[in-house]
User: Fold this.
Amino acid sequence: MSGNGWAGEAPCAGDFRFTPEETTAEAPTKPLVALLAVCRDCPFRAQCIDLVLPSASLFDGVCGGRLWHNGQVLATCDDAQPDELRERGRRPIIHGTEAGARAHNRRGERACSLCREAGRLAQQARRARKRASGT
Assistant:
């Protein structure tokens, strides 16, 4: 499946328990470790890592069959493979910036509200500069 269309087919799709408000390195909570069972048979673990970029984005939660805290693996599901951990060159999006809006666009995604607003304001500023210069 090309793009990010696979994300809607993932067993965790729409389940907000995978990205909790608080995760601690000292004591991963049992519910988060238990969620790794969902990842065990997921065919999208490597794509999940590529999408989230957990180490680069200092992710907290469950991604790609691993429990993460500040971009570090705390626990791993059974059958997880080391080659799934490669973050294949995609940089994390810096949300709330015009560059973030462009990054969403390059990925074929709808920009988040912060990036859409930043893109709108940048476009508005370019138009104002153009009007002021008289061209």
User: Anything to note?
Assistant: The chain has a mean pLDDT of 83. Residues 113-133 form the longest helix (21 residues). The radius of gyration is 18 Å. The longest strand covers residues 72-76.
